[in-house]
Amino acid sequence: MSCLSSAPSFLFVCTGNICRSPLAELAMRREIEQRGLMADIDSAGTGNWHEGDRPDPRARATARRHGLNADPLRARQVRKEDFERFDHIIALDRSHLAALQKMQPAQSKAKLSLLLEHIPHETRRDVADPYYGPEAGFETTWHDVEAGCKALAARYLESSSL
């Protein structure tokens, strides 16, 4: 999607940008497409360990099972300019949120939040990191990010509270 000045923008952030945040990026892209809306959507990591790499093979397989293609995505690290480019920077867990809060320039326009806090009545705050676990963990991550993105889309894309 192209970056339009009137379109909201979302950056999803996890640790290395190869598991959780790419899945969230894909889930949000699907949500806006299904609603026939426009938004600027990307993902990044707090670290640069996987810079330029495709998402984890298990994340790509999970995306494929849900009819999405993660192959074109490439990992990157959050940059200072992201705090001006994006309206909403959404962390996948509290450690990412803390890192983003330290990085955020004082005059930044970006609103920082945790993905799961957008889901009404959800008490968990962190999307679990599936990296060190079995492939089944990626399916759990998918369900969490999909629910979070549905809630985000309902809140920010179908209302005037941008």
Low-confidence stretches: none
Q: Quote the distance from N terminus to C terminus.
A: 18 Å
C-alpha Rg, in Å?
14 Å
**Number of separate structural domains:** 1
Order of helices and strands: EHEHHEHEH
User: What class would the helix/strand composition place it in?
Assistant: alpha/beta
Helix count, DSSP H or I runs of 4 or more residues = 5
The whole-number mean of residue pLDDT values reads 93
> Biggest β-sheet: count, sense, barrel?
4 strands, parallel
Second rung of CATH, namely the architecture? 3-Layer(aba) Sandwich
What is the count of β-strands? Answer: 4
CATH superfamily: Response regulator
Strand order of the largest sheet: 2-1-3-4
Helix content range: 25-40%
Rough shape? globular
Domain Phosphotyrosine protein phosphatase I: 8-155
Biased composition (Basic and acidic residues): 50-59
Enzyme class: hydrolase
Keywords: Hydrolase, Protein phosphatase
Summarize the structure.
With 162 residues, the protein is α/β, with parallel strands linked by helices.
Describe the secondary structure blueprint for this structure.
Layout: E1 9-14, H1 20-34, E2 40-45, H2 57-65, H3 82-85, E3 88-91, H4 94-103, E4 111-114, H5 136-157
Parallel strand pairs: 1-2, 1-3, 3-4
Helix pairs in contact: 1-2, 1-5
Biased composition (Basic and acidic residues): 50-59
Protein name: protein-tyrosine-phosphatase
Keywords: Hydrolase, Protein phosphatase
